[in-house]
């Protein structure tokens, strides 16, 4: 379901989807059913007991987990998963330095905040000093100057979401893979927003033919339930055994049931193929109707993570879209961002594009 209704019964196409969380649709019946069933059985299990759900989950994730990873670790939110990825990199390599990118957003706890670019999120907090920020999509020669034998990890979003819907180039990601491997550093790919089908690939990095050491997933992966996952190789996960990381709620049975049901929906419904199909009409319509409007700098994004960069702040356009029955959000200083559920149909795509064209031209003459 890609609609929501307000208290007056007015219907909206929800292309905000709770910052992209409701990618599998609101109240997806399979996910709601799995959560209710599990809540009626048990909601927490002591670590010394195994339940059948764990094995069922492993089987369900086979169709979804990044192919070259061997283990997955549960957390409860995106930022916690990034913290865990950083801890894995520090312990596995025994090094400290991190490389991140201008425009990056990785979360709001102190480790994640330290690799997040925007000063409005960072200012006033004791962020880590061992972080080097480079230009997103920098050339291999610039990257080469910084990825060295003191580097623990490079962390990168294959499509920057919060920072303005900018996709990474293949050359950039391939250079990062090559240089991290050469330096003995880890490549962490943050797929919290762009992963799990949203760009038309199960994981957005797949399009670029790389094999990151750690893949971080969140938002959509629990179908609305607050949960995140870190996928990695066994040798890396082992570096952090013995209670050096933990969380009361991580991998609780409700979270496991939600991820299992989400993975099943993902496979049964061929979500990446559905996204590719929806994206064809969407991008054709955006090109034809929106890309050449005077106030538009350019179209941004990939698949069902899309938007427009305007020549001015987007608040009035966002307000107008809401009046027109379309919910969207901001990205960076000047972009309007849309993160609709994969179930969005042709009629709703037309509604989004119509409303966007009308709102841009109404608020800033075309
Ligand atoms: N990483 C990326 C790419 C994100 O888009 C977000 C949230 O928007 C996060 C990390 C943080 O996730 P959370 O808000 O669940 O902590």
UniProtKB/TrEMBL annotation:
<keyword id="KW-0808">Transferase</keyword>
<keyword id="KW-0663">Pyridoxal phosphate</keyword>
<dbReference type="GO" id="GO:0030170">
    <property type="term" value="F:pyridoxal phosphate binding"/>
</dbReference>
<dbReference type="InterPro" id="IPR015421">
    <property type="entry name" value="PyrdxlP-dep_Trfase_major"/>
</dbReference>
<dbReference type="InterPro" id="IPR050103">
    <property type="entry name" value="Class-III_PLP-dep_AT"/>
</dbReference>
<dbReference type="InterPro" id="IPR015424">
    <property type="entry name" value="PyrdxlP-dep_Trfase"/>
</dbReference>
<keyword id="KW-0457">Lysine biosynthesis</keyword>
<dbReference type="InterPro" id="IPR049704">
    <property type="entry name" value="Aminotrans_3_PPA_site"/>
</dbReference>
<keyword id="KW-0032">Aminotransferase</keyword>
<dbReference type="GO" id="GO:0042802">
    <property type="term" value="F:identical protein binding"/>
</dbReference>
<dbReference type="InterPro" id="IPR005814">
    <property type="entry name" value="Aminotrans_3"/>
</dbReference>
<comment type="similarity">
    <text>Belongs to the class-III pyridoxal-phosphate-dependent aminotransferase family.</text>
</comment>
<dbReference type="Pfam" id="PF00202">
    <property type="entry name" value="Aminotran_3"/>
</dbReference>
<dbReference type="GO" id="GO:0008483">
    <property type="term" value="F:transaminase activity"/>
</dbReference>
<protein>
    <submittedName>
        <fullName>Aspartate aminotransferase family protein</fullName>
    </submittedName>
</protein>
<keyword id="KW-0028">Amino-acid biosynthesis</keyword>
<dbReference type="GO" id="GO:0009085">
    <property type="term" value="P:lysine biosynthetic process"/>
</dbReference>
<dbReference type="InterPro" id="IPR015422">
    <property type="entry name" value="PyrdxlP-dep_Trfase_small"/>
</dbReference>
């Amino acid at each position: 379901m890609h609609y929501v209704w307000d208290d007056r019964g007015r219907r909206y196409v929800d292309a905000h989807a709770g910052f992209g969380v409701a990618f599998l649709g609101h109240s997806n019946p399979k996910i709601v059913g799995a959560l209710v069933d599990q809540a009626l059985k048990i909601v927490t299990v002591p670590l010394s007991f195994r339940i059948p759900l764990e094995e069922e989950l492993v089987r369900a994730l086979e169709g979804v987990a990044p192919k070259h990873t061997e283990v997955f670790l549960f957390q409860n939110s995106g930022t916690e998963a990034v913290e865990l990825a950083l801890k894995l990199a520090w312990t596995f390599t025994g090094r400290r330095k991190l490389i991140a990118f201008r425009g990056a957003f990785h979360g709001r706890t102190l480790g994640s905040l330290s690799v997040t670019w925007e000063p409005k999120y960072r200012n006033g907090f004791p962020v880590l000093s061992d972080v080097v920020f480079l230009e997103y999509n920098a050339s291999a020669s610039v990257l080469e100057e910084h990825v060295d034998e003191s580097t623990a990890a490079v962390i990168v979003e294959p499509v920057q979401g919060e920072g303005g819907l900018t996709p990474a180039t293949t050359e950039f990601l391939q250079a990062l893979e090559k240089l991290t491997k050469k330096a003995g550093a880890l490549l962490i790919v943050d797929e919290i927003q762009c992963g799990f089908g949203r760009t038309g690939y199960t994981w957005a990095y797949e399009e670029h033919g790389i094999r990151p050491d750690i893949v971080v997933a969140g938002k959509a992966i629990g179908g609305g339930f607050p949960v995140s996952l870190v996928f990695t190789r066994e040798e890396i996960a082992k570096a952090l055994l013995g209670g050096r990381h933990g969380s009361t709620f991580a991998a609780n049975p409700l979270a496991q049931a939600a991820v299992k049901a989400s993975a099943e929906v993902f496979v049964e419904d061929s979500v990446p193929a559905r996204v590719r199909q929806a994206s064809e009409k969407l991008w054709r319509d955006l090109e034809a109707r929106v890309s050449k409007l005077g106030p538009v700098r350019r179209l941004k994004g990939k698949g069902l993570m899309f938007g427009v960069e305007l020549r001015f702040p987007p608040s009035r356009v966002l307000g107008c879209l809401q009046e027109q029955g379309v919910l969207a959000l901001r990205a960076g200083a000047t972009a309007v961002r849309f993160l609709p559920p994969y179930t969005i149909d042709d009629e709703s795509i037309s509604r989004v594009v119509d409303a966007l064209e009308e709102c841009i031209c109404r608020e800033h003459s075309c």
